[in-house]
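Sequence of Aminopeptidase N (Paractinoplanes deccanensis).
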Amino acid sequence: MRRVPLAVVALTAASLLAGCDGTPTPEPVTPTASAPPSAPAKAAIDYSAWQAGSSRPVADKLYPQHGTAALDVLHYDLQLAWQPKTKTLTGKATLRIRPTADAPQIKLDFKPYALGEVTVDGAAVSGAKVTGEKLVVPAAVKSDEPVTLAVDYHGKPATTPMPSHRSDVEPLGLTITKDGGLWTMQEPFGAFTWYPANDQPSDKALYDIAVTVPAGWSAIAAGTPVGQSGTTFRYRSTDPMASYLQTLAVGKYKKVTAKGPHNLPLTYWYRPGVDERLLPSMKKSPAFLSFLEKRFGPYPFPTGGIVIVDSASGMETQQMITMGGKPAKFDPAAYEEDLLHEYAHQWFGDSVTPSTWTDLWLNEGWATYVQFLYQQSIDHFSDAELERYLREADASLRAKLGPPGSPKAANFAESNVYLCPAAMLKELNDALGDAKFFALGKAWVQTQKNTQQNRASFIAFVNKQTGKDFTKLINSWLDARSTPK
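Predicted 3D structure, token representation.
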């Protein structure tokens, strides 16, 4: 998830409760292909309209049961309707897909729903079914010959278990609240609980989402708001997004709008009578973004915002951060550090995304180290205190959970992938000095925008950018069983 526990770093106590342009997508051009006089003309779709959603999917070794390297989803068009009284989600998902291999069928992650019509390139397909957590459509596809899959479905959403021992563990995916609302967090997976998805980080795609809700209710999704007609709320992502970074929240929300740096549109969604205490912290978003832009360059998306949900956790969902509204004990300073952490992920994790979950450290190490730097700017503790704390925490976590470069599937997003790589970045910062270190971080996120990266590409980038060989330093911190000297 990048779901983070609401937390504050208390260096004085040597302890940490780690927190974890609006331009529309062009309409596809549909020219008529030439055909012999005896054959009917066939409409051809120009898939270049969704080229920005092209990825190079790879199989995820940590969770191989989710996602596939055989398909590259270019674009999701989700038309959804939610009925709180019957707890029924009705949807039509239209996916523009580039197969990466010949296959006799299309297979995607999908939680069981009742299927309606299923079509491929407009032709009805019989025999489509949901088996376990897979949608199987018996339609042959060829490598690099894009197809359009459309699926009608309806039913009651259900969550899937979270593979972690964290203190804030909650089921993943679309969750129904007591009053009939919805919210979701879905890292490392869970998007498949509300739409057919290639639910893995290496397949980023564009999105158009429309959600119809009852009068008096609001629907919030990741991406850029593109208007409301009646009780239908619409969102569009023109920057590609991994499925775990999508979000959906439905409830009786109130909206506050604001402006961030260089007039960046910001939107805060909260529930009246429930979340007012969080508003002052949310309204500090422009300051958080200014802190980050000063070090890493322009915010990478056309809009930003926060939605509060009925959770104890938080998540860096793209352009619309999903934050829990029920911390066990509310501490404004700790909440704001978590918000800063999630905003940092818009650069580290959202814009530049790891190819597989083995490299979660690449997200969490940067966001955690930046969170420490932000706290240092507020609390004025020394570099020596930070160094001592990180090394002590690193030693304890490696002994308990192992090195951050080899995470265990049952221990997703536990503290070793946060603090241990943050300690490595502290060593890199010390070796380079602030000017070169922040130049490195800025170059990484600005030149690799909207891509998927891994350990090897990061090391190669660091070495080229700095003109020095940091391979041993980085690998030691990612692989060693004990804290490197």
